[in-house]
Amino acid sequence: MSDPDAADQAAAVPRGPGDELDDAVIVEVSDYLDGALTGAARAEVERKIAQDATWKRAHTELTEARQFLSGLRKAPAPSHFADGVAETIHRRSAGRLFARRTFGDRVPFGALLAVALVGIAVIAYVLWSSPTGSLKVDRERVTPHGPAAVAPP
Predict the structure, then answer these.
(1) ∠14-17-23 over CA atoms, to 5°?
(2) For residues 34 and 56, what is the distance between their CA atoms, to the nearest angstrom?
(3) Is the dihedral of CA 46, 50, 56, 62 positive or negative?
(4) How far apart are CA 126 and CA 86, in angstroms?
(5) Which one, of 50, 46, 54, lies nearest residue 13 by Cα?
(6) 59, 2, 72, 4: which is closest to 28 by C-alpha?
(7) CA quadruple 98, 102, 107, 109: dihedral positive or negative?
(8) What is the pTM of this model?
């Protein structure tokens, strides 16, 4: 799977026990391989890879790592994975991290709002249509207010 020439190049670069790559070099080469560098920065990294053994080694190692990782197959998580993780956390934390799900968590807010509005409308209709309801206006019992309402004796 790996390129024999790349392996030979990597083997040709001397490595010692404490010969680790600098993080800045790894970041620059990784950005180069990702295509994140443009213009002068890309040309500078290409020049360093061509001339500097450390940069060449970083490029070779990152290229090989990408080839190995691209060969791995991605497996989807099981459908019950999230529920199992949440249940495990709840069980281990004795409920401190996740409280029991309330009614509002299980039923969407829109549904609760619709039921509440229908309930209010039903209560208003019953009060309005009731002969003793407090919302009904009895026009016969209403007396006008003000000076015209006073009848002479």
Answers:
(1) 80
(2) 16
(3) positive
(4) 46
(5) 54
(6) 59
(7) negative
(8) 0.40
Q: Which pLDDT score is estimated for 119?
A: 96
For the chain, what are the domain ranges?
A: 4-70, 76-106, 107-139
Tokens representing residue 67 in the block:
């080839």
Measuring CA to CA, which residue among 147, 150, 145, 125 is closest to residue 136?
A: 125
As given in the structure block, the two tokens for residue 117 are: 């509005």
CA-based R_g, the chain, Å: 38
| Closest C-alpha to 22, from 54, 44, 49, 48 | 54
User: What confidence tier does 114 reach under pLDDT thresholds 50, 70, 90?
Assistant: very high
- 91-110 pLDDT, tens digit per residue, is 777 666 666 666 666 678 88
For residues 100 and 90, the answer to whether their CB atoms sit within 8 Å is no
Give the end-to-end CA distance of the chain in Å, rounded to a whole number.
116
Q: Which amino acid is at 54?
A: T
